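Q: How would the structure tokens look for this protein?
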Amino acid sequence: MKRLFGGVLCSAAMVIATLSIKSVGGAVQQPSTPGSLAVAPAPPAPTPAVMRNYQPVTAERLKNPEPGNWLQVRGTYNGWGYSPLDQITPANVKQLSLAWVFSTGAVNAHEAAPLVNNGAMFVSAPGNQVIALDARTGTLLWRYRREVPPGAIVMHPVSRGVALYGNKVFFASNAAVLVALDAATGAELWTATVEDNKKGYYLTAAPLVADGKVMVGVSGGEWGIRGFVAAFDVETGKELWRAFTIPAPGEPGSETWPKGDEWKTGGGPTWVSGNYDPATNLLYWGVGNGGPWIGELRPGDNLYTSSTIALDASNGKIVGHFQYDPNESFDWDEVSPPLLVDFTRNGRTISGLVNVARDGYMFFLERGSKGPIRFIDANPYVLQTVFKGVDPKTGRIEYDPARKPGVGKTVDFCPMWLGGKNWQPAAFSPKTRLIYIPTSANLCSSMTGTTPVYRPGSTYTGGRNTLFIAPGADHVGETQAWNVDTGKKVWSYNFPTSSNWGGLLATASGLVLGGGTADRMFRALDASTGRLLWQMPTNSGVMGQPSTFMIDGKQYVAVFSGWGGDARGVQGRLNALRPGEFPEVPDGGALWVFTLSGGQ
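A: Here is the predicted structure in token form.
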């Protein structure tokens, strides 16, 4: 029997022999046999040309990246997901075709953004792996895998990307271990245990490098954790600070946890990377749901759940916050960080934060130079049935009590528990002044609250939910565009049979690129009008965050295809509601890279 292994046609015996070799820090160690003769080690493989040209990623380059590289998950610290490249345009995008494709060998949701530095591409994938490729040809340079310990708690086994700094690649492995790799070889340089995975802490976010530190947030909001963001030394992996999102007694915000020890298991996960303002050295990080889900079990506003927090990058101190949903009871994590976008209101330019919240409202906020965050305005961007109103001065919302779940109480609410927009990032173009949003526009939930018992290492949710489509809705997903200066919707591109689970990319040439839908398409829309300009089917659903880069004067676009996670769960529930209308999406992860006229 012969089969493909690592891109080479091998016999079964060769495959078995290959699998017995252990990867050690990027090198290969042959198994020893007692009594055998010593064999001289093989000479090291020659360094690929793309790695000989590797340019260390400096703090200055992260602040001002070259247009032809993509050095961070969202391109820049402000989270815009915007590229100044303009070779691929609305006029020629129909010529976009496949340059190369690379299969990861993994299933489940592929949500990472490919990073590119001088022709070397780095991306993480399910299976706790980091892959380095020649960005021009798709040739594998190295692959790192980290074994997940038996019995590890990883509710969502995904990775949303890596971070680059110096000659290192930083990776947040699922079992709550931060890893630094050598960019040239994939060799492990250091590891740091972020928290005890047996307590329910795990990692899914891309690390963020800022102020000379590498930072990461934690997942596990459904396991009774106490959320935090932690910073580590880039050279040694030593922890430098830890900022808890649930205050202990006596700390600022602790008065919002008035009942007993609920703060110890209060949730507040931070499972998406924050954004950063180098001018003020402030981080803006999103904080997720409270634990357990039902707010009446943890009285008070419960800071800093369902909030954006401003952190001083030098020491991790929380210097500002805005809470979207006090005493949040809907599983509405607000972990997506706000985009740092300056906008105008009444003739005044505001140093802004724009958060497209999971609760179905878009919040416009003002970021203070010392940290405080001030409310400007907010409006729903999808069907929202929970809020009776928003205070125009403070931004504090008023719930409709008939729509708030409680223990033994069943309520209907829109948007669904997974939100009008989940983790998938919006994009912003400074040329059009539009923010582009991937949404689940007309999906709603019924939720019944229960009283869970906290046990370390077990789920701690306290809620049962179902899904339904809003009555009269003719679609369930959208890509939307809103003007940040007027706060008005400009256009919407609708998807009848799928919500939108993909991150978006905007370009200076006037394109919005993204996938996110069950039809497996990756598409380009006109950034000004929303008109469909081009689309191509991939092997699975496109859940990745697109990036774009240039090599030898040629612009490329890269994106992961690979359906799974919550997207698969929602699609399955929709198909149960209306059999045959929401078909299953094929499995399989692959990195797709496109360029004009294809080829290499």
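Helices lie at 12-19, 49-52, 59-63, 565-577.

The longest strand covers residues 96-103.

Upvote if useful.
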